[in-house]
Every structure is written in structure tokens, then in C-alpha cells.
């Protein structure tokens, strides 16, 4: 997830203050991201990892990760994040086609990701073309 930030540029309203990664619900990725947050930055911005309980908390995020066990909330997350410059990353097959900008998938037993350019660009996210050579374009 951290590596996606090397290929994405957020709109100006999301380029100030801490870089907030919101995790909607419980996920083991929280502890892994906290380790990265303690060692790295996004540009000169500190990384803050927040466990999100209520959709109203999503607006402060630059990235929102929706674990597979919370994928039933994707519509609510999408509607809350829409037009706010937030990248939604999901973890369930098919969600990149309908809601998220990036979606983790397994291909031949290996972790990969789908990219929905239209969803990212609708949020004002600029995408480095190199990202498309690393993932699967779904739009």
C-alpha cells in the first residue's frame, strides 16, 4: 500500500498536513502500516494510520483501505469519499470495476492489484504511467 504513493499524486486539498491512511474496521495491516509509518514519510509528510469505525471519519484520509471482511460497506465508503480526493483500496474481486481505485487480487496464487483509472482520475488523482505496468487495468 505504501508503494502506491510513489505512483500517485493527490489534489492540492490533500497535500497538506499528515498523510492519513484510514483502515475501515479491523485488519492485521494496521500494525504493518504503523511500522512503515514509524520509519518512512510521504514526501515530507508524516504517515498516520487510523482505524476508522464510522464513515464520517473518512474525509480526513488520503487513502482508505477496505478489508475484505468489510466489503459489504463499499457503497457507503464510496459515497462518503466521493469527490474528496481519497483513494479507495479494496480487497475483494470485482470492487475496482464498481467502486475502488485500487483493488488487491490473487492471480495464479500471487498477490496483484487492479487499477481503475476512471475512479482515480475522478478524485483528482494523477497516476504515473509506470503503475499500469505493475497492475491490471480494469476500466
**Using DSSP, what is the number of strands?**
10
Number of helices: 5
Shape: globular
CATH architecture: 3-Layer(aba) Sandwich
Biggest sheet strand order reads: 3-4-2-5-6-7-8-10
* Residue share in helix: 10-25%
Distance between the termini: 21 Å
Topology-level CATH name: Rossmann fold
On the 0 to 100 scale, the average pLDDT is 94
Low-confidence stretches: none
Topology order in helix (H) and strand (E) letters:
EEHEEEHEHEEHEHE
Number of domains: 1
Instruction: Report the oligomer.
Output: single chain
Note the beta-strand portion.
25-35%
Task: Report on this structure.
The chain has one domain (2-11, 19-133): Response regulator (Rossmann fold, 3-Layer(aba) Sandwich), CATH 3.40.50. The model has no long low-confidence stretch (mean pLDDT 94). The strands form two sheets. It has an eight-stranded mixed beta sheet with strand order 3-4-2-5-6-7-8-10. A two-stranded antiparallel sheet has the order 1-9. It contains five helices and ten strands. The protein is α/β, with parallel strands linked by helices. β6, α3 and β7 (102-107) form a beta-alpha-beta unit.
Brief overview:
By secondary structure, the chain is α/β, with parallel strands linked by helices. The protein has helices spanning 29-39, 74-81, 95-98, 117-122, 130-134, and strands at residues 8-9, 19-24, 41-42, 45-52, 63-66, 87-90, 102-107, 110-115, 126-127, 136-137.
Outline the secondary-structure elements.
Blueprint: E1 8-9, E2 19-24, H1 29-39, E3 41-42, E4 45-52, E5 63-66, H2 74-81, E6 87-90, H3 95-98, E7 102-107, E8 110-115, H4 117-122, E9 126-127, H5 130-134, E10 136-137
